[in-house]
Amino acid sequence: MVNNLLHYILPEDRKRLLSRLKSWLSRKGSIIIITPILHSKKGEEFSSVFNSFFSAFENLYPTPAEEDIHQIAKELKLKVKTLKPVVTEGGWYFIQLSNR
Questions:
Q1: What is the SS3 assignment for the chain?
Q2: In the chain, N or C terminus with fewer CB closer than 10 Å?
Q3: How far apart are CA 100 and CA 81, in angstroms?
Q4: pTM
Q5: What domains can you pick out in the chain, each with its CATH number?
Q6: How confident is the model over 20-32, as pLDDT tens digits?
Q7: 59-77: per-residue pLDDT in tens?
């Protein structure tokens, strides 16, 4: 589970993190992520404010966009099995990545 964590990791390092997690998965395993999504269909205003807040700190980075999740999954040969809002007002999503 990667919950409320991606904004602490440089965007260019997220693929490496997920690659490492993938290496530990069983054939039917999944990586579960709960994170705000930038420019989400649900809670766009909140995610924009959230990212503005993060820019004030050196150790916080923008939350990923939905396209970022799909791109990393594709590059790592993972399937985006689930991507659904869990807190719609805040743009928080439950994401399940699984081996293809």
A1: CEECCHHHCCHHHHHHHHHHHHHCCCCCCEEEEEEECECCCCCHHHHHHHHHHHCCCCCCCCCCEHHHHHHHHHHCCEEEEEEEEEEHHHCEEEEEEEEC
A2: C
A3: 9
A4: 0.84
A5: 2-99 (3.40.50.150)
A6: 999 999 999 999 9
A7: 788 889 999 999 999 999 9
